[in-house]
Amino acid sequence: RPGEALVGPTDLRSRLAAGLSALYGSEVPAYRTLVEVSQQVNAEVLEDRTDAQRLGSIDRVTAERHGAIRLGTPDELGQVACIFAACGMKPVGFYDLRDATPAIPVVSTAFRPTGREELAANPFRVFTSLLVVDDRRFFDERLEADLRSFLEARTLFPDELLVLADRAERGGGLPSTDADRFIELATAAFALSPEPVDRAWYTRLEAVSGVAADIGGVASTHINHLTPRVLDIDLLYERMADHGIEMIDRIQGPPRTDGPDVLLRQTSFRALAERRTFREADGSLTSGDLRVRFGEVEARGVALTPKGRELYDAEGIGAFPRTESELDAADLAYYRRDDVGALSPVVYEDFLPRSAAGIFASNLTGDGTVDRTRAGTTRDVTWLRSVIGRTLHDPYALYEAERG
Ligand code: OOG
Ligand code: NI
Questions:
Q1: CATH number for 210
Q2: Co-location of 289 and 318 in the same domain
Q3: Is the C or the N end of the chain the one with fewer CB within 10 Å?
Q4: Is residue 170 located within the same domain as residue 293?
Q5: Are both 331 and 354 inside the same structural domain?
Q6: Is the domain of 227 the same as that of 324?
């Protein structure tokens, strides 16, 4: 109807994040515990520390989530880019996890809002990985061909969803009823499918890589984890044991120091067994377990400059000065200076490849098989940009712009 107000990208993003959170909470009950404990910890930190909201308002942090999804084809990535674009989420950064230990056969980017106000309103981000089906270190010619035909035959996102996404992006939003439908379809596209899993096909892929099986072994995608943000991850880590949830043995990322929080610290609980239906070789249906979805929590600090990041990668956090003014003076981290010269930190909004690989790895049951004597396929920023067909943002350029 003419004159009707549109639901814009910011609201669509908040609603998608909330919709996925409700979905994941219904599918993985331990996620609800993680969110509750995070909120308790955040409330305590808010009472204890006057600087608790220095890295984002409590409203932002309470709503803040990142999700992870894994896709099989460049077309699927292009489609998801369209859905996220409707929500004001743009591809930022390039991660190649094939060089990690153990090697994961994917390259990734993160879809997220980029401007200061958009981030403050809702910073929802999705770490999005794409299987590299022609990398010979993982897949031989036959498996590549079988993977391609399996992936080409599936449809992850219904046409109606893609049409609505496109309309939202072009028009800067959707009328209320269309917006409801868009959120309903987008959320459903990331639910765990009840469709039977072909046992032989899944097992064949799993022998190469659990991630390959998770992506190419089923005809749908799903939210792989959804991560709330916490203001004190050490405290949360201790608390989770009291709730009977066993976390992995460490917190990934820079250890806590008596200086400012930097970059990103994450920890997770191992994937829980979920009941799934399998189709056996003789056509019969059986029921079994798959462990693919888990829970993760994170704490965020100030973004490091290229110089700071180089120092962190080479020498670790121990080599850093302990005050914000020294970090700023040495150009190691990004700070914005206000009119009276006071510093405020620019929050790190991205991911860390080492932690990402660690998160993937902590949830694999086997190491899979990698033939390191073979050459990998080239995948880089230029390739990813052409596949997505949109600007692929450089995180450092965004932080630089934030610093002003
Ligand atoms: C993505 C793992 C990366 C993170 O927080 O570093 C990630 C995945 O498991 O698909 O989410
Ligand atoms: Ni994650």
A1: 3.10.180.80
A2: no
A3: N
A4: yes
A5: no
A6: no
What is residue 3's predicted lDDT score, i.e. its pLDDT?
65
ipTM over 0.95: yes
The per-residue pLDDT for 2 is: 61
User: Is omega for the bond preceding 105 within 30 degrees of 0, making it cis?
Assistant: no
CA proximity to 75, closest of 3, 133, 122: 133
| Same domain, yes or no: 180 and 314 | no
Residues contacting residue 175 through CB under 8 Å, at least 6 positions apart: 1, 4, 6, 7
Q: How far is the CA of 355 from the centre of ligand 1 (A)?
A: 8
For residue 152, the model assigns a pLDDT of 97
Which of 296, 359, 360, 363 has most ligand 1 atoms within 8 Å of its beta carbon, as the pocket-test mutant? 359
Residues of the chain with pLDDT under 50: none
Q: Is residue 131 part of a domain?
A: yes
Q: Of all helices (H) and strands (E), which one includes residue 153? A: helix 141-153
pLDDT of residue 377: 87
The pLDDT value given to residue 241:
83
Say how many domains are in the chain.
2
Q: How far apart are the first and last CA of the chain?
A: 41
Ligand 1 pocket mutation, candidates 98, 360, 363, criterion most atoms within 8 A of CB:
360
Residue with tokens 């000065």: 321
- In a domain, residue 242? The reply is yes
Q: Quick one: which atom of ligand 1 is closest to the CA of 227?
A: 5
By most ligand atoms within 8 Å of CB, the mutation choice from 34, 94, 127 for ligand 1 is 127
- Sheet of 274-279: strands edge to edge? 197-198, 274-279, 285-290
Do 95 and 222 sit in the same domain of this protein?
yes
Question: Is ligand 1 within 6 A of the CB of residue 65?
Answer: no
The residue segments making up the domain with residue 324 are 304-345
Query: Is residue 1 included in any domain, yes or no?
Result: no
Q: Residue 296: nearest ligand to its CA?
A: 2
- 193 inside domain: yes
Instruction: Please name the residue whose Cα sits nearest to atom 11 of ligand 1.
Output: 68
